[in-house]
Amino acid sequence: MKTNKITIFIAAATLVVGLLAGWLIFGGSSSEKNHEGHDHAIEAPGEAETWTCSMHPQIRQPEPGDCPICGMDLIPLEDEQDEGIDPMAISMSETAMKLASVRTAKAGTAEPAKTLWLNGKVETDERRIASQSSHIPGRIEKLMVNFTGEFVQQGQKIASVYSPNLVTAQEELFEAEKIKDSQPQLFRAAKEKLKNWKLTEDQVEQILQSGIPQEKFDILADISGYVISRKVNLGDYVNRGQTIYEVADLSRVWVLFDVYEQDMPWIKKGDKISFTIQSVPGETFEGTISYLDPVIDSRTRVAKARVEMANSGLKLKPEMFASGTVEAKLPARAGNLTVPKTAVMWTGKRSLVYVKSATENGVNFIMREVTLGPALGDNYLVESGLEDGEEIAVSGTFSIDAAAQLAGKPSMMMRPETKTMEAPQAFREQITRVANAYFEVKNALVNDDAEKAREAAGKTTDILKKVDMGLLEGDAHHHWMALQKHLKEATEMISATDDIEKQREHFNILSENILEMTESFGLEIEKVYRQFCPMAFDDKGAFWLSESDEVLNPYFGDMMLRCGEVKETYRKGQPVYKNEGAENMQTTGAHNH
Predict the structure, then answer these.
(1) CA-CA distance, 420 to 521, in Å (whole number)?
(2) Above 50 in pLDDT, residue 2?
(3) Residue of higher predicted confidence among 270 and 95
(4) Can you say whether residue 112 is alpha, beta or left, with left for phi > 0 and alpha for psi between -120 and 50 degrees?
């Protein structure tokens, strides 16, 4: 009986334990599932969407609409995923790239060859010009050649001269002939004296046979050619050796072509050139460059390339204009990369491009400095900084750069280092005079006055020469030596041309170096302003320094006088930090169009 009770108790206990275990296992799991299902069923509230402008990324609005600056439709702001992206890169959505007209292309290899168009002029071969002089002193009694352009044959009589000295020499000959048997050396000396005046042996014998002194003697042409200059008139007295005519042999001529400084790397001795002459229609001439000037003309900035041509029938006449083409090539090198000119941004000494990269998080661009070689049509050769196949922005680069500035990332305007160097006040006073002369150049270009720009540039060159670089030491001294060279070259180029557009191109280089001078050493002026026109030089943009915060554009003058903005204010006695980020641009900028 007792055994049965124990058995029943054990069975009951087992049942209770089993029920409890089943509840813990199945009931708890079900509750957890219900709890998890409840969590998934609750939807998180949607995050607020932000709208921005592709051209003005600083605009942020909670709803769609128009940009308050440019009026363009706002686009959704896409969250930037920084993972796997260079922190210095600027991300852009496909929509933003389309609205900003950003296009890209790959840097590729190319044969460094291009066609150069050269202008030139037919000139007389300098080696075939001769001075026809009088070998006899006396008075011109007769001129057989009376005008320039007349052809003379070697040995032809070209003038007749009356010479008292020659009459006396003939009388001495007659006297010496009488005693030639006793003093033959005296007779020979008298004959040689006449021959020294270019009389031939036959002429001397004729004089001896006649026994009468001749008063007039003919001058014979030494060479054949065309008279290009007549130096005397009938009745003039001439000395022995004095030039009567200049005669040129035009059977061969030179064609001298102008080679501009930027084209010098492409032209070399031995290059073939094909050219036409406007006054010889329908005919093309071929020649070879036989000589290239080793010195560039300081006024015109060109060197002469010489082509020597046979001139049968005198088709080529001196002073005729010629237009030629050269298929020029540079020595082939591995990795000759080219990029479109539109891809390159200039900041004075630096050349920059934006390199595109794509990740799973989207498209981004990063700024890179490149070293450029010669121009190749609409492209540049790239010496270093890019690899074959890398993709770069070829349009819309300034939109990318603007976005980088506003995002506080590296841009063409941003060099975060202190530039000011130690310089004594006496030196700053001297370069302040340079800056004041530069302002005169700038103001002349503002007023579209090329002549005043030339004069002011010449004045600036003179002041530059008076700057005492001995006042500087160490790095400052070396830095000024390099700057002074670039400043002098730019001012000389401006003063060498009357073409105001050329002057403005050189003024851009001058301005970059004036700005560098201002940032490096400072000026003895309370305030000067760094100003920028984004539309200069086909929207590449250009800077200048101004004594006033009023924007007066030297690159367009009256055509777009107010186009530009103040980018930086330089104050006397304050160090310059080369960082024109978004905050600085917004606080100092005063944009005009």
Answers:
(1) 5
(2) no
(3) 270
(4) beta
The answer on pLDDT for 9 being more than 80 is: no
Q: Which residues of 431-464 are buried (b: 16+ CB within 10 A; e: fewer)?
A: bbbbbebbbbbbbbbbeeebeebbebbbbbbebb
Token representation of residue 477: 């001294």
Q: Tell me: the pLDDT tens digits for 127-160?
A: 999 888 888 888 988 888 888 889 999 888 889 8
- Are 20 and 12 in contact by the 8 Å Cβ rule? The answer is no
Q: How far apart are the first and last CA of the chain?
A: 114
Predicted confidence (pLDDT) per residue in 509-527, tens digit: 999 999 989 988 889 998 9
List the structure tokens of 393.
Answer: 């922005």
> In 311-431, where do the E strands start and end?
321-329, 337-340, 345-346, 351-359, 362-376, 379-384, 391-395, 414-418
pTM above 0.70, yes or no: no
Question: Can you give 439-460 as a three-state secondary structure string?
Answer: HHHHHHHHCCCHHHHHHHHHHH
The two most distant CA atoms of the chain are separated, in Å, by: 196
Residue 84, sorted as left (phi over 0), alpha (psi -120 to 50) or beta, turns out to be left
Alpha-carbon distance of 514 to 504, in angstroms, equals: 15
| DSSP reduced 3-state for 401 | helix
The CA angle 549-534-98, to the nearest 5 degrees, is: 140
